[in-house]
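Issue: ligand-bound run for magnesium ion - logging full I/O for the record.

Environment: standard queue, default settings, no custom constraints.

Inputs:
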Amino acid sequence: MSTTLITVTQARELVLAAVRPLGSERVELDAALGRVLAQDISAAGDVPAFASSAMDGYAVMAGDTGRTLTIVGESRAGSPSPLRLQDGEAIRISTGAAVPDGATAVIPQENIASSGEAAIATEAAVVAGENIRAPGEDMRAQTIVLTAGTQLGAVELGAVAAAGAGSVTAARMPRVTVLCTGDELRAPGEPLGPGEIHNSNAPMLTGLATHAGAVTAPAQRLPDDHDATEAGIAAALERSDVVIISGGVSVGPHDHVKPALAALGVDEVFWSVALQPGKPTWFGARDGGALVFGLPGNPVSTVVTFSLFVAPALAALLGTTAAGPPEPEAVLGTDVLRNPRREQAVRVRLQRSNSATVAFPTGDQGSHILTSLLGADALAMIPPGEGTLATGTSVALRALAR
Ligand code: AMP
Ligand code: MG
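Outputs:
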């Protein structure tokens, strides 16, 4: 039997076409780390809002060297001097303090020839504007500082605060449920009986979804049983925007996921992609409801298909795009055997040489070799074809979700 499989690119397009961005909600700044903006952020006013000193020193009128100036007051950060500076006067000033009316420059402490309690002697000429930060130098009032779709890291939170906002409108976080199917699965740390394996996909998929901006509950295990599979998926559909199922999606006698999804009214969008690893990938959606991904159970296939299909979907639900690979392309550091019919996603470590980024496969690429993901920087996409792709050939990179 030979059917034409859809390409990775086609599958990604089908996934993105099915996504309807989630709504938004107001989030206090101290809870907004990692959230995605659903609004542009504009500066409420000029930042800095007032002319301020860049140095500890003395606010003065610009003028020649060799002056003796009388100290008449002090302007501290948060406590501006009420005085208007007159010719022949200096006002002691701290970094960030408001420049008093009448002053046009600040002489740094270290540039004062001598200073007493009551007067200072200037050493060098000072020109107007020296060591003064003008209002709006950082942000101009009403100008956009961050655009909708930006993910808020620590630095962005600082910019929002400086712009004058204490809360933001952020995209609602997708609610993701991870279901791991397989009678052979035991929870991490449990002793294994004959033929059993540890459920490594559970922490991986939960972690990947969390890093992609989702709210996740602990992953659930489903036995290879029709009724339990259907009941588990039904419950997940009720409380989730996205359901990610690992394993049980193939066509073996103990694979119950596809019939269960059909019984629950989740419409198939695609089944099987021309991809290695990751061919038996299923994607569908319930009318106006949750998106469902059926990912192959082998851990590497799970992570590869999450990276290529689920991560872009979660980003689109949040109104943004998933992080790209470190470089768009790289040259192969070794020959790679091609797959005649399927595009390969090879886990690679990237090394920068003078002229190019070079991609080296991370050892054995079997879909069960979880350690091939450790230390990998990206996926190198090897187009289908005969023979080998030679060392030095340029290949596209895709982001490996982490
Ligand atoms: P399946 O897709 O259910 O046919 O599983 C394919 C392979 O992946 C089998 O060797 C499973 O034992 C393995 N596998 C399935 N689920 C998991 C999981 N959650 N963690 C680790 N390996 C798994
Ligand atoms: Mg299975």
